[in-house]
Structures are given as C-alpha cells and as structure tokens.
Amino acid sequence: MNTRSLVSISDLSKQEIIHLLDVASKFDHNPNQRLLEGKVVATLFFEPSTRTRLSFETAANRLGARVIGFSDASTSSQAKGETLKDTIMMVSNYADLIVMRHPLEGAARYASEISPVPIINAGDGANQHPTQTMLDLYTIRQTQGKLEDLNITMVGDLKYGRTVHSLLEAMQFFNPTFNFVACKELQMPEQYKQFCRERGLAYTETTDFGPDIINKTDILYMTRVQRERFSDLMEYERVKNVYTLTASMLQGAKPTMRVLHPLPRVTEIAQDVDDTPWAYYFEQARNGLYARQALICRALDIQVP
Amino acid sequence: MKKKELAVAALENGTVIDHIPSASLFKVVNLLNLESQQGSVTIGNNLDSERLGKKGIIKIANVEFPEDVLNRIAVIAPRAVINIIHDYEVVEKYEVALPNELCDIVRCNNPKCISNNEPMATRFHVESRDPLVLRCHHCERTVPQNEITLKN
C-alpha cells in the first residue's frame, strides 16, 4: 500500500491528526498557496457527490494543481465493464494523486493497494469518509478551542451514519463524553459502544431529544434520518419530527455550544436555527476546503510553510 | 471363512487430519482440493469422538501439505489435529493454528464489498479467536464464525 494514501480515519495517529489540523489552519488563513504547481490531481467519482467533488477540486485548484476526472461513472469506461483496477492503473499514469468516491465498500482500500500513486478516499459506500471526519475535527477544535474533554451529542441516524462512526473513532484520543440520541431502529451499533467501553470513553444513550441533553452539550452533531432506512413508513414519519432541532430548544444551551451537520440537511434542523449563534454547519462545510488542502499536501508529501 | 479386512488400513506415508467436526468435514475436503488428488484418500465421518461427539477424519496417502495450507482449515475446524506419517509412524503431530490473516480463503458476506465485485483476492483479519470473528480487510465488516463462507 502507498503509505501516503488515506482510506480510513484509523490510518492516522493522534499526532498526525493534530498536525493535519494545524496545517488546515494555515490554509484557513491563506487558502491560495500554489504549492502544487505542475501537479495533476484526478477526481474519480464513480457515484455523484457534487458537494465533496467541488470541495476537493477547489482545494486542488487553490493549491495550483490541475484537475482531471469524471463526476459520474456512466461517463467513464466502467460503464463498458472495465475493472476498478484497470481504471486506477490507467489514471495513475496521468495523475500524481487520485481522489476517489465509489459506491462499493472497500474500493478505496483496494485501489490504494494496487495504485502506484496515493489514493484519498472521498467515500466508499457506507464504509469510510475520512476527509469528512477531518473537517469535523477541525470545526470542533475551531469552535471550542480544544478537542479534549468535550461533551458531544450525536443525534439522528446513528446506525448507518458513517460520519458519526468515524468521528467517534477519531475522538477516542481526546477523552470525550458522548450522548447517543436516536430512535430504537437507528441506535448506535453495539460494536461502537464496545469500542467506547474498551477505551474507557463515557457515553449515554437515550431516545429523548430535549433540553436535558442539549444544555450540557458542547457539540451537537445532527445527522439526517433517511426514509429508505425504514421498513415502516409510519414509523419514519413519527421519528423524523421527534429528532428535529428547533431554535426554541436551544434557549438553555451553553453560549459556546455549536450545532454541526455533515449536510445535506432535510428536516432535522429547522430553518429558524440558522440565524441563531449556535448554528455552525455552513462554516463547517467551508472548513472542508482547508482540511482537504491539508490532506492533499500530506498525500503528495508537500511541506506547508 | 476368510476373515474380512478393513480396506482402510494404516497409512504407510502421508497425512492424517483428525478431530474435524462432522459438519465441517466436506468443507475441509473442498478447501484442500482433495478431489484432484491422484493417490488414495480415505474420508470417514460421524465417527464417535470423546471430544467432539461425532467427528470426521481424512487420510491422504503420500502427500504432505505445507503447514500454512493446513492452517487454513482452522477457519472451519479450529481444533483439527494433523498427523504426519512416515513408515507407519507418526513423526509429527500438531493442532492447526489459525493464522492472523486469511488470504483468499473466505468470501465476504457484504454484497456491496469490492471483493465481491472485482476479480481480486479476499483478505480477512482475525479479530477474535474465541469466539472466532473475522474482519474484511477491504469493507471492514466483521463476520462471526457461524456466518463464515469459504471462497470457491
């Protein structure tokens, strides 16, 4: 495996995570640094993800790289039956770095094993999306001034949501207290609760979403409850409103508390939250640019002054 | 009257795999690809066993397998015992040991795993030995012992 690839957040040590956040902070202050002059970055999106692709392409462009790629597998040779291996081998002849999004789980790990150039995973099915986790960590540190000893409440789809799973794994280094808020159908899977217990990370679990939890929270991490996760649509209709955050629920929240969301949101955060001082999800999305600039430089072994 | 003799005589040279759980016997036969063996192969099943209740046993004449090949059967027969026979004597005897990593032996149960959609070798890590739990190197899903399926 190419050691500069990034497939899963667990590929990074605590020291590497902190270093990358420091590098991202440099780009936050000055995003236009032509450190990748003459480099070519390929963005291979085997399934569409406009937000993530634009963020990566903006990151590469602001670093002075050129970008090639496709945004939909139907326009690539995959539609003709080409294997992933052949696509990767072909593109690695042209590009210095491959950013890839793929609907199949493990696709990025496999690509990193066969590719002569580094791979950055921009999401592989329901498995991993490590650059999302890095921007989440960056945003948490930015808003709280630290990563240690925070009370983090995760709300919504904790069963299938890969962002909450990766964030939980990454936070293991920083002594968090977690609150898992979800309906019975979408609770945090046992393997992640076991992960917490094995590492001595405190957590609570509840189906009630209200001021009791919100008022002690530092980071309120909201996720989308997807209709397709439910076999019973009546149940979906009930649940989606129970886990909707409204401005009135935030009256007793800590002034430093911030609401995050990986976006896109649907109904889980009411529009009236946007204008409160606690809303931070749009700034969070912008941080994706800086986090991805830092990760691209890591992959290409480029020192950021 | 002529005394009937058992055709399954003691092995002069070869390998005996003993203490295979009856339910796993034919999986072991498949795993070792014994149908392509030219020499004599004796397969016994549902034999009484103190340890297992019922067990299977396989005798393969004039063949010795590399240890790493035999260790693969630990996935389905974790307590199987290997006897290497030379000149009717057991010259080596050991219980199979599951390697830390299984390369191209087990199939991933996740239909959305890349390993089920691309011509490639599977790779699994042994997450826990007792109870046996494997983790797919690629999609990172775990597989408990009762759901392990071998790759054909």
The string of secondary-structure elements of chain B, in order, is EHEEHEEEEEEEE
The major pleated sheet of chain B works out as:
5 strands, antiparallel
Structural domains of chain A: how many: 2
* Poorly predicted spans of chain A: none
Structural class of chain A: alpha/beta
The Cα radius of gyration of chain A reads 19 Å
N- to C-terminal distance of chain B: 48 Å
Query: Could you report the average pLDDT of chain A, rounded to the nearest whole number?
Result: 94
Uncertain residue ranges of chain B: none
The assigned structural class of chain B equals mainly beta
Please bin the fraction of helical residues of chain A.
Answer: 25-40%
Order of helices and strands of chain A: HEHEHEHEHEHEHEHEHEH
Q: Can you tell me the overall shape of chain B? A: elongated
- Count of domain modules of chain B: 2
CATH class of the largest domain in chain B: Alpha Beta
Strand order of the largest sheet of chain A: 7-6-5-8-9
**Which architecture of the largest domain in chain A does the CATH hierarchy give at level 2?**
3-Layer(aba) Sandwich
Radius of gyration of chain B: 17 Å
Structure explained in plain terms:
The complex is a heterodimer of chains A (305) and B (152). Chain A is of the alpha/beta class. Chain A folds into 2 domains: 9-128 and 287-299, Rossmann fold (3-Layer(aba) Sandwich); 131-285, Rossmann fold. Chain A is built from 10 helices and 9 strands. Chain A has helices at residues 14-29, 50-62, 84-91, 107-114, 130-144, 162-171, 190-198, 211-214, 233-242, 281-299; strands at residues 40-45, 66-70, 97-102, 119-124, 151-155, 177-181, 202-206, 219-222, 258-260. Chain A has a 5-stranded parallel beta sheet, covered by helices on one side. In chain A, helix 9 (233-242) links the parallel strand 8 and strand 9. In chain A, helix 1 crosses helix 10 and helix 5 packs across helix 6 (162-171). The radius of gyration of chain A is 19 Å and the shape is globular. The two termini of chain A are 28 Å apart. The mean pLDDT of chain B is 89. Helix content of chain B is 8%, strand content 40%. The longest helix of chain B is centred in the first third of the chain and has 7 residues, at 25-31. Chain B has 2 helices and 11 strands, in the order E-H-E-E-H-E-E-E-E-E-E-E-E. Chain B has helices spanning 25-31, 67-71; strands at residues 14-21, 41-49, 53-61, 81-86, 89-95, 101-103, 106-107, 123-129, 132-136, 142-144, 149-150. In chain B, the strands form 3 sheets. Chain B has a 5-stranded antiparallel beta sheet with strand order 2-3-1-4-5, with helices on one face. In chain B, strands 6-8-9-10 form a 4-stranded antiparallel beta sheet, with no helix packed on it. In chain B, strands 7-11 form a two-stranded antiparallel ribbon. Chain B folds into 2 domains: 14-95, 2-Layer Sandwich (Alpha-Beta Plaits); 101-150, SH3 type barrels (Roll). With 152 residues, chain B is mainly beta. In chain B, a hairpin with a 2-residue loop joins strand 8 and strand 9. Chain A binds chain B through residues 8, 83-85, 102-107, 109-110, 124-128, 191, and chain B through 110, 112-115, 117-120, 136-142.
